[in-house]
Amino acid sequence: MTESGSESGDIELRYRLLRESFSLDIAQCLPMRGITGIFGPSGSGKTSLLRCIAGLEVAEDAFLRVDSATWDDSARSFCLPTHQRALGYVFQEPRLFPHLDVRSNLHYGRRRARHAAAADFDDVVALLGLDSLLGRSPSDLSGGESQRVAIGRAVLSAPRIILMDEPLAALDAGRRHEVLPFIERLHAHFDIPVLYVSHSIDEICQLCDQLLVLEDGRVLANGDLQSVLARTDLPMLGGAEAGAVLNAVVADYDAAYDLSRLEFSGGSLLAPGRYEKAQVVRVRVRANDVSVSLDEDSRSSILNRLKADITAITADAPSTALLKLRAGDAELMSRITRRSLERLGLQAGDSVIAQLKSVSVRQAGD
């Protein structure tokens, strides 16, 4: 049985794990809401952290409180066995029982539920699109279908948290895009906090609300997604995927051009496609897709132009620089050549026009 502590509403954890060629040393608080991305290069400790939380790895110094329940406390020689921890674990490989059909695999998760708050079986099946798969054997499923079943099994175990260890890593691009919307729907519908390990910053940007960045078993950053992505001092968040995420509201739709107008604190953006009016959407803007101008000349094919202020300039590569921009309450990134930087005489504090050549929009269920 669990031991209770004071109610915190967070995941409070501390782990010091020593191995011959690796050590994990982390003490953080993570929110008991939304999807928290755990990002870092191979060997940074992402999987080790999940294994500690699951009780599959025993750390020399350990403390874990999930909401009001203590699962680890090495100072008191207390370690809750894995099978008593109210968690769901989704691995890179689905790990379905090959001798059971899909329905029985899902019911196995249901049998692990330790309290009456377990999700409704039919609700989970419908949400994950598993209706037509229930009688099939795992050997007859695609990789994306198998992973959806594994996610459903985890949800049906009535977890307080779900751990996902690169659940899309073994899938090709098409199957990844098949599964991602289901993860988002699941989170939005059941409101179960998820710790999501990934080496793909694009996946992180699509799914996550919070971001924990690890390197060599240590925490480099922990905070809301937008703030951490804006950290220009973290090289692993740079490169071609450097950029920002904005939360916007769908204002209206222009059927003649198939463009939706999205509003946020820094202005409005036009994005291809139709989205439900008043819906909150997430807009991903890569630094490579943002250029800057010193005037408002509108004779351009670029539709999205925003007034912004330069808040910081950092060297990015021998030929380029990264500009951190603020538009309203939102932060953007722009990568320009050093030659353009010098030619325009840009400095922190300057006002510019940010020109967004491309934006990608994600809504729940996309």
Please describe the structure with a list of short key phrases separated by commas or semicolons.
single chain; 366 residues; alpha+beta; 6-stranded mixed beta sheet; globular
Q: How is this structure best described in words?
A:
The protein is an alpha+beta fold. 21% of the residues lie in helices and 37% in strands. It is built from eight helices and 22 strands. The strands form four sheets. Strands 1, 2, 3, 5, 6 and 7 form a six-stranded antiparallel beta sheet that branches. Helix 2 packs parallel to helix 4 and helix 4 runs parallel beside helix 5. The chain starts with a strand and ends with a strand. The relative contact order is 0.12. The N terminus is likely disordered.
